[in-house]
Model the fold of this input.
Amino acid sequence: MVRKNLKVVTCAFLLGILIASAAVAFASEAVSAWKPYIINGIDYENQAMVSNTSGAYGYTWVQSIDYQLPPGYMGAMARLYKDGALCRLTDYAYNNGYAYSLAVATSIDSGPGTYYSKGFTRGWDTLLDDYVTYETYKTPSLNIN
Done:
């Protein structure tokens, strides 16, 4: 009886390890924490993501917490890193209508490597008559074989 229970426990343990390692090996995205900031009393937050969808993409989001903002008030630039070096980036994109949020994505990068994303976002400062720029937090790394 003890031997049978030991086999069941061992099988369950090995199955758990296989499932956990498969989840790590085939993770499809990694997301940074939200980074809050304030410009002219307007609360913003930004975030980066790296995704594996038949290749790696970097994404950057910016959003206003409370208000739809006029055209051009929010900007975002996405950047994708492979093995620690910048491999893809976008130009700044801006909201072209009243919006709560804006998201941009890099072009695809293929091939094995360790990828992460970190971008920049902007908000229009009416007092400075210029944009104020904030970097997102770095995403966790995503290994692609």
Observations:
- Helices lie at 2-25.
- The chain has one helix and 13 strands.
